[in-house]
Amino acid sequence: MAGLDPKHHQSGSSINKKARISKVGNRYLRQALYMPALSAARHDKHVNGYYRHLIEKRGLKKIQAICAVMRKLLHAVHAMLKQQKPFDNTRFFDLSGTIA
Predict the structure, then answer these.
(1) 21 forms bridges with which residues in the sheet?
(2) What pTM was computed for the model?
(3) Whole-angstrom distance between the N-terminal and C-terminal Cα of the chain?
(4) Nearest partner of 43 among 100, 99, 89, judged by Cα
(5) What is the pLDDT of residue 6?
(6) What is the three-state SS of the chain?
(7) Is residue 100 predicted with pLDDT exceeding 50?
């Protein structure tokens, strides 16, 4: 519903283009998730670990990593509301294997 899912484009001779976010869903929801994703990627150590993992290990660009953080935050909010539990940032990304 938020339009944060990847959309693959394959057509004719221009096959295998890069995936983009679909933008089919609610644009206000995407706008509302953008600044919290930026803030969390900067200030929360577990979200920052996930953000750094996406950039360094998976080779994503910064805006692609922010979109992935937005999507993961959306899933976390949905789980919080469904299970009626507070936000647990330790479940966002495991830092045990990344810190030496």
Answers:
(1) 6
(2) 0.76
(3) 39
(4) 89
(5) 63
(6) CCCCCEECCCCCCCCCCCCEECCCCCHHHHHHHHHHHHHHHHHCHHHHHHHHHHHHCCCCCHHHHHHHHHHHHHHHHHHHHHHCCCCCHHHCCCCCCCCC
(7) no
- Residue among 33, 68, 35 at smallest CA distance from 51: 68
**What are the structure tokens assigned to 26, written together?**
């609610």
Both tokens assigned to 48 = 């920052």
For tokens 């994703």, name the residue: 37
Q: With contact defined as beta carbons under 8 Å apart, do 5 and 22 qualify?
A: yes
- The position carrying tokens 């001779």 is 13
The backbone torsions φ and ψ at residue 7, rounded to the nearest 5 degrees and listed phi first, read -120, 120
Phi, psi of 5 (to 5 degrees): -85, 150
Residues 49 and 31 sit within 8 Å (Cβ to Cβ): no
Long-range contacts (CB closer than 8 Å, 24 or more residues apart) made by 46-55:
46/89, 46/90, 46/92, 46/93, 46/95, 47/73, 47/89, 47/92, 47/93, 49/93, 49/95, 49/98, 50/92, 50/93, 52/98, 53/93, 53/98
